[in-house]
Amino acid sequence: MPTKKELLISPIQHIDIKQHNVVPLVDAMQSMAYSSRDLARAAAIYERMLRDQDCGVILCLAGSLISAGLKQIFVDLIRNNMVDAIVSTGANMVDQDFFEALGYRHWIADDLYRQGTEDATLRELMIDRIYDTLIDEEELRLCDDTCKVIADSLGPRPYSSREFIREMGAYLEKNGKTPAKGGVDSIILAAYEMDVPIFVPAFSDCSAGFGLVAHQHERGDKPKVSIDSVKDFYELTQLKIANPTTGLLMIGGGVPKNFAQDIVVSAEILGVDAPMHKYAIQITVADVRDGALSSSTLKEASSWGKVDTTFEQMVYSEATLALPLITGYAYHKKAHAQRKERHWARLLEPVTA
Amino acid sequence: MPTKKELLISPIQHIDIKQHNVVPLVDAMQSMAYSSRDLARAAAIYERMLRDQDCGVILCLAGSLISAGLKQIFVDLIRNNMVDAIVSTGANMVDQDFFEALGYRHWIADDLYRQGTEDATLRELMIDRIYDTLIDEEELRLCDDTCKVIADSLGPRPYSSREFIREMGAYLEKNGKTPAKGGVDSIILAAYEMDVPIFVPAFSDCSAGFGLVAHQHERGDKPKVSIDSVKDFYELTQLKIANPTTGLLMIGGGVPKNFAQDIVVSAEILGVDAPMHKYAIQITVADVRDGALSSSTLKEASSWGKVDTTFEQMVYSEATLALPLITGYAYHKKAHAQRKERHWARLLEPVTA
Amino acid sequence: MPTKKELLISPIQHIDIKQHNVVPLVDAMQSMAYSSRDLARAAAIYERMLRDQDCGVILCLAGSLISAGLKQIFVDLIRNNMVDAIVSTGANMVDQDFFEALGYRHWIADDLYRQGTEDATLRELMIDRIYDTLIDEEELRLCDDTCKVIADSLGPRPYSSREFIREMGAYLEKNGKTPAKGGVDSIILAAYEMDVPIFVPAFSDCSAGFGLVAHQHERGDKPKVSIDSVKDFYELTQLKIANPTTGLLMIGGGVPKNFAQDIVVSAEILGVDAPMHKYAIQITVADVRDGALSSSTLKEASSWGKVDTTFEQMVYSEATLALPLITGYAYHKKAHAQRKERHWARLLEPVTA
Amino acid sequence: MPTKKELLISPIQHIDIKQHNVVPLVDAMQSMAYSSRDLARAAAIYERMLRDQDCGVILCLAGSLISAGLKQIFVDLIRNNMVDAIVSTGANMVDQDFFEALGYRHWIADDLYRQGTEDATLRELMIDRIYDTLIDEEELRLCDDTCKVIADSLGPRPYSSREFIREMGAYLEKNGKTPAKGGVDSIILAAYEMDVPIFVPAFSDCSAGFGLVAHQHERGDKPKVSIDSVKDFYELTQLKIANPTTGLLMIGGGVPKNFAQDIVVSAEILGVDAPMHKYAIQITVADVRDGALSSSTLKEASSWGKVDTTFEQMVYSEATLALPLITGYAYHKKAHAQRKERHWARLLEPVTA
Description:
Four copies of one chain form a homotetramer. Chain A has about 350 residues and is α/β, with parallel strands linked by helices. Helices cover about 50% and strands about 15% of the residues of chain A. Chain A has helices at about 5, 25-30, 35-50, 65-80, 90-100, 120-125, 135-150, 160-175, 185-195, 205-220, 230-240, 255-270, 300-305, 320-330, 345-350, and strands at about 55-60, 85-90, 105-110, 125-130, 135, 160, 200, 225, 245-250, 275-285, 305-315. A six-stranded parallel beta sheet of chain A has the order 7-2-1-9-10-11, with helices on both faces. In chain A, helix 2 (about 25-30) packs across helix 3, helix 4 (about 65-80) packs parallel to helix 9 (about 185-195) and helix 7 packs across helix 10 (about 205-220). At the A-B interface, helix 6, strand 4, helix 10, strand 8 and helix 11 of A face helix 6, strand 4, helix 10, strand 8 and helix 11 of B.
């Protein structure tokens, strides 16, 4: 049996779209067929939504994207003012981004390990596997613990996930987990600094959940921190109301997709006639034929009054291939150059304070 | 343009596994290949977990399953003591099951409509589409409103989704939405009556979310109902601690799969060395190669210490084909005949009261 | 390392649709959603094409279906006059059906082996793997050899694959490989006896190819047997011309699907205005988004003038689940009861003699 | 209803990998996860097989690739000595490459058309559709006719598809369909000029089949051209025997994949102990779980003794995204710079003359 050290030697490295001018390549894909043409159209729509001065951009993340080497893209989108709010699964934000911000890494799994025949060995070594990537489970436990530390430090009341994640950003800054102090950059830190709110509608379903369960268990009957997912929904709806023109850049489906699409209806329920999302892109490999939300087309979302169909594009591709091309295209076209900063997180403080 | 009435004429009808003895058919599949053999093995594992007197069965639901005609299966599993807890997406429980419990229906969409070219028409008619199924959006709004009515009636404090859904069951009973009074049976009602707890970890991400947002909006700064997803996680973990031997029957992936798998780790964090889920079945069409949780194998989950691999089976099939065969097999083998009722909801009342 | 004998112990067993009356089950699927409703509609279309006295039924087979336990279904379709011609990949007809007719079997592979990590062991043991199924490679070589024996016995000229496969049927009969003499039934034998022509348009791409290459090699410059795929196309077109109303029952895509669809155009090229295929069903898991023929919709085929769209249905399912239900439905509805035998092979003898 | 002219306005344009140095981008993918890492490894394997002076490279093509804008890649691979033989479906070579060589084009279909709801209109306009691409059916008939003209000009005997396709190359040259004379470059022409043999094992299953059927029909009982697929198999096996070290670059699966893999076994049957394919790459979106050959892993092929597993890589991606990156990587790394030309077609002339 190998040792843990022997298995965790090649770290996942995050792609840097700033280094790769993919504009000519993506332009060439415009006149091809299938996924390449769809991808080129999606890139053009993302460019268009960034150039639309009225449009707020909401990024939706599902699937294990950070562990896959896509973290730097999201950091760059935030720091270059190419995204105004994020809706994500917990794993991406906490188990993966916050985890790396604490100084830990993801590791490349050798081809043998992805077949699943060695998982008993991994179990014994306390190594967790995400398809072809490995994680040191002991480090992940430290990530859980840090979430508990943060929860313990807060006043007892219901928080939106956004509020809690903002505290995680503050924690990183306070504890020197910043590039300026030799740390690595992270989505949570960049969003904290740029006032980009991050929502995780199923927040207990991740490493933070473990920390929060431990917090609540310890508090027993005493007042404690709770996570109110309704508040998340309310806050994101407020953003839609304050900034009616919106575009969605979605990787994967799941709760983030549904949640972000739903705010159009939610605004209506609060008595505000908000327009459908004007732009929408989804990168996915899910198949429409099982009827699940993750794979449902953006056309279908238009029947629900959630997404306009003039500028919508599904891209059928695994995200590590498509996302660097789509975001790199918009970045190198400088679509964000004239874009005003929105600081949406500041809009929400009066709501929550 | 057709009228709404012309489009909503053929209702979805729920399959009744009690009427179809599929045992010989599934037995024949045991010695075939591919999905049929996997399905037969999954059916045998479900039978085995029901015959294991120590085993608590957790049902996980993702994807639009109720609207697809699978509701009666879940009702039958509850009423026949074949499931002890449910973890679900909100859409299945609220937008679809509770919606039908209120007296509304889902409708078959003609082949033309699933192509997405008629969604503008549907939008105008206030008809929502789920692939090949249609919903009257005005009825869905009434479902949202009912959730608000329930929220308004509750004392202001953080609730687990389980607690709130239990109140929905009480509402159905109180308002005569029961078979005894001419209503239709429902998952929420059956679970209420049989003390089967239902967890929806991303509870605001559905019709209930709309009702709750309206509730919180109306309350403004006054005390209000909130939904604490940490509490859900804590409660489900308590069930695992109280009943260490567990089996998972999962349809689709997403949050419900992750959430239910995670309770093994959560128990450990609370200081209890709970065993991995002893049995696990997942029906899915998701492809493992994109690395997402929904498609991750149960072997992979074993590297995380969540699922034992002796009795695990992935079934690669769209659920409307596989689920009637798997559950029908266990039902007609009378695997549940000697099974003791668990009434897990009662276990949780001291926790939450 | 295990021995070959230890690995080849559990044979694949073919499902017998005659034993399972699935009519009520499939009828219940009519009012559900997704694949179940599609499947029910496909079953109804197959029933309809069998009741249409004018309609000739062409069965198209791609994917490893016989090794998967579906052989008896095809034998039953032939012997019950539910199919009039077959277009197949070579593997299904030669490596698998003829192979079993010679007395060999396919074997269930233990779960470990489908992961691919043990293939070096299998290689050493001369065991071939098809996903979760195993084959004794030494037996397969004997199947190759038998094809050579048949080729050696024939007069040297170009043959259609249909002619050659007919000789394979004759070989089975002559050598006592029939149920009457203690052998197992087979598609090739049943088709031989029932005058159902079988076409394999890429005939050298299978075990027969190995036998034929050896035959041609041995003959050197002397006259030899060759396989003329144009002749296949010509013959199948003749059948379309002689029997203009046709229906397709397709499992998988590939060459068989394309070949059978093309005969409409081919007839036109021979100056006969043949109608499009009136009925068409395809069972597949292939995804339409890669633009390949295997996954192209039957609607797309209608743009080519090949398939009418009134009675067409794609069923998105792995075949071992869907095919027993679709064919079992038609069988138990006795859709074939009044159907006249066509003996299409007889039609072709004047063409080829 | 639009006119044909209105629908056929934006031509598919072929991507030119020579213009896009993707080396840094692909190198960055090496340390990511999922498809990007697989793709980077595949690119490195392709580079390695080109640098291996002993290795002959066989390119396998399935799916509608030429119509999708990938033609120039294959032309460049041939003209830059990066491929030594091609095994393809007929559609790619005849309906698409030869078709374009004759001066016709493929056209971009508007988003509306890919949904399948407008296929009746396309049918009426004599426009054929491949997912999101359109073809003028009248032009395609002229392509069929040209194949007949070529067949009519040949001496009556069995031909391998390779021989026939070589005649198609000669036809293009003779009729001035060359870049030098203002024509467009094509795979068939480049292969003709560079002595790269092209095999289409199911040759009648394409536009050439229509021409050949018309040819045979016209000839009636007189001597005629036939297409002997056994001869194809024999010839490709001879190449393997003459050049034992081989690598496969496969796009899609189907007959080309199976056929090329099988020559290892075929050599053995001719008494030559040829090594397995030393290198193998397959780009596909097919899912392994249906057991079909197209999706079977290269590990599985190793159980059959066909593919070595040291340098094999499956890339799960739609080809228009992955292929430009993989081939562009090898091209810009100048992996072919020192490579000797093989002119395999010359090796076969003594065999066939």
